[in-house]
Specification:
- With 249 residues, the protein is α/β, with parallel strands linked by helices.
- It has one domain: TIM Barrel.
- The protein is built from 9 helices and 8 strands.
- Helix 3 links the parallel strand 3 (67-74) and strand 4.
- Helix 8 (200-212) packs across helix 9 (235-248).
- It comes from Tolypocladium ophioglossoides (strain CBS 100239) (Snaketongue truffleclub).
- This is Spherulin-4.
Length: 249
């Protein structure tokens, strides 16, 4: 299996010290990959570049070899016009040259198979513009939040196949759905588990359980309902668990 990575919905405004938990953990565990999603204004916002606080924090992240930042773009489950989504992608691409932004996280991704071409167009636009302007691929992650048809895995790098509470994760039918996915699809899958009461060794056990299904990206937080506006109470223990699995892979 590929080495696991930590996917972080970094929706916290970068006031002084606000992103310090990521800087510290990423520096402590240089062998762990971190993919941080930034979301200034339900997308990049209207300006060509973010404000000074974002610019300073993103420049610092860009200096860390094991951290990749992605820009948040919402798809409104396929109802948002393609041109509007592409416009957000193009703004973020303009950030890459000076701020090291490395791709796009598509939220509110439709899960119905008839939207596969819609999302493939967006994935293709992201990768081709990063390649054309910067000479390298932009990373693409879809977030339907549920297990989707195999065709959805062809174009993005990863797909979030679970974004719900730990209570929901514990229900057997969720795990059964993952078990029926192909090995190749699970290797490109991510689980985001919120509302988790776990601490210490229990966080490690939960992360290992997710990993046992063959998933590669993992995030666990105690925050309720997935707001992602504060750091998980067990953030350090969770990162250490991923570090242990990275060494073992």
């Amino acid at each position: 299996m590929d080495k696991p990575f930590v996917l972080i919905p970094l929706y916290i405004y970068p006031l002084e010290q606000a992103w310090e938990p990521l800087f510290q953990v990423a520096a402590t565990h240089p062998g762990v990959r971190f993919v941080a999603i930034i979301n200034p204004n339900s997308g990049p916002g209207p300006a060509a570049l973010p404000d000074a606080r974002y610019m300073g924090a993103l420049r610092r992240l860009s200096e860390m070899a094991n951290v990749r930042t992605l820009g948040y773009v919402h798809c409104s489950y396929g109802k948002r016009p393609l041109d509007a989504i592409k416009a957000d992608i193009d703004v973020y691409r303009g950030w890459d040259a000076c701020l090291g932004l490395g791709g796009i996280f598509f939220d509110e991704t439709p899960s119905d198979a008839r939207y596969v071409p819609f999302m493939a167009t967006l994935a293709g636009h992201t990768k081709s513009t990063w390649q054309g302007d910067l000479g390298r691929d932009g990373m693409v992650i879809y977030n339907p939040g549920v297990v989707v048809a195999r065709a959805y895995f062809e174009h993005p790098d990863y797909v979030v196949v679970f974004e719900q509470s730990q209570d929901h994760w514990n229900r057997s039918f969720v795990r059964q759905g993952l078990q029926h996915a192909s090995v190749e699809a699970r290797a490109k899958s991510v689980a985001i588990i919120h509302s988790s009461p776990t601490r210490g060794s229990k966080v490690e056990a939960l992360a290992r359980q997710v990993r046992s299904f063959g998933l590669t990206g993992i995030f666990v937080t105690d925050e309720q309902a997935g707001g992602y506006t504060k750091w998980p109470a067990a953030w350090t223990q969770f990162a250490e668990a991923i570090a242990g699995m990275s060494c073992a892979t």
